């Protein structure tokens, strides 16, 4: 399975989570690519796409908003995740899911993390991503 882990990061937290997801999925045998949103390029060759964003002003970043509203995601399986400091994590996931579903993508998972990602959080994200990968391969 060809997987893309694409993210935007303002403080490094979302990048750390994305890297952890990428490493875990590679360890499970997935063909996995890690990319910042601005460098993602053509999405057509991916079977599963993880999209990560920090919460900024109670929304995903502008770059992630542009990505999730892209017609390139139509028919794709997409999992969304975010990192946040104060509040609105689930609100941002709701926004992302709503836009993705309108573009014709299937949201196959969502996860939110408050605060700096420690090893326990990173392991939790790895397990979450592995479960989504396993379900997508059935």
Labels describing this entry:
4 helices; 138 residues; globular; alpha/beta; 5 strands
Overview of this structure, please?
Strands 2-1-3-4-5 form a 5-stranded parallel sheet, sandwiched between helices. Helix 1 packs across helix 4. It has one domain: Flavodoxin domain (Rossmann fold, 3-Layer(aba) Sandwich), CATH 3.40.50. The chain has 138 residues and is α/β, with parallel strands linked by helices. The chain is 40% helix and 26% strand. The chain has helices at 13-27, 62-68, 89-103, 119-136, and strands spanning 2-7, 31-36, 48-54, 77-84, 106-114. The mean pLDDT is 93. The chain contains 4 helices and 5 strands. The chain starts with a strand and ends with a helix. The radius of gyration is 13 Å and the shape is globular.
Supply the number of helical segments: 4
Largest sheet, in brief, is: 5 strands, parallel
Quick check: average pLDDT?
93
The count of strands amounts to 5
Form type: globular
CATH C-level: Alpha Beta
At the fold tier of CATH, the topology name is Rossmann fold
Percentage of β-strand residues: 25-35%
Name of the CATH homologous superfamily: Flavodoxin domain
Query: How much is the radius of gyration in Å?
Result: 13 Å
Distance between the termini: 11 Å
Element pattern in H and E: EHEEHEHEH
Q: What count of domains describes the coordinates?
A: 1
CATH architecture: 3-Layer(aba) Sandwich
Low-confidence stretches: none
Helix content: 25-40%
Structural class: alpha/beta
């Amino acid at each position: 399975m060809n997987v893309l882990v694409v993210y935007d990061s303002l403080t490094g937290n979302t990048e750390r989570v994305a890297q952890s997801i990428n490493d875990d999925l590679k360890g499970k045998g997935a063909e996995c690519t890690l990319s910042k949103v601005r460098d993602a390029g053509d999405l057509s060759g991916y079977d599963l796409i993880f999209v990560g964003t920090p919460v900024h002003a109670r929304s995903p970043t502008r770059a992630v908003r542009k990505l999730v509203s892209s017609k390139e995601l139509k028919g794709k399986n997409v999992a969304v995740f975010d990192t946040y400091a104060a509040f609105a994590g689930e609100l941002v996931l709701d926004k992302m899911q709503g836009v993705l579903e309108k573009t014709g993508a299937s949201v196959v998972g969502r996860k939110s993390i408050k605060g700096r990602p420690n090893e326990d959080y990173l392991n939790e994200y790895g397990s979450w991503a592995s479960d989504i990968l396993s379900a997508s391969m059935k």
